[in-house]
Amino acid sequence: MSYPNDGPGYYGPPPQTHPNGTAILVLGILSLVICSILGPFAWVMGNTALREIDESGYYYENRGAVQAGRICGIISSVLMMITVGFLVFAFGMALVFGGFDGSR
Predict the structure, then answer these.
(1) Calpha distance 28→49 (Å, rounded)
(2) Where are the alpha helices (DSSP H) in the chain?
(3) pTM, two decimal places
(4) CA distance 44 to 70
(5) Ranges for the DUF4190 domain (predicted)?
(6) Running DSSP on this structure, what letter comes out for residue 12?
(7) 23 with 45: CB under 8 angstroms?
(8) 60 forms bridges with which residues in the sheet?
(9) Predicted confidence (pLDDT) per residue in 20-67, tens digit
(10) Are 70 and 46 in contact (CB under 8 A)?
């Protein structure tokens, strides 16, 4: 015995897209490829958007894009911190060992 096709059932409201989802993903990718200073912005915006998504109770179809942009921002921020730390270390060592000696 088969049942008639009633069509798709009602599963709640249609999925929404977070308004900053695409911007967060673009900032995260650009922070890895072009300019790492954009990384902290993608990280903070991603945290805010994920908090809004979790607190809303609705299903957002671009949660993965928000999360990917946030992770790219985290990676870029960590790489930028390592680079700045290395530069501070290198300039400190140059100062200690006379790399900036002006007696020439």
Answers:
(1) 14
(2) 21-33, 39-56, 63-96
(3) 0.80
(4) 8
(5) 23-82
(6) S
(7) yes
(8) 16
(9) 999 999 999 999 999 999 999 999 999 999 999 999 888 889 999 999
(10) yes
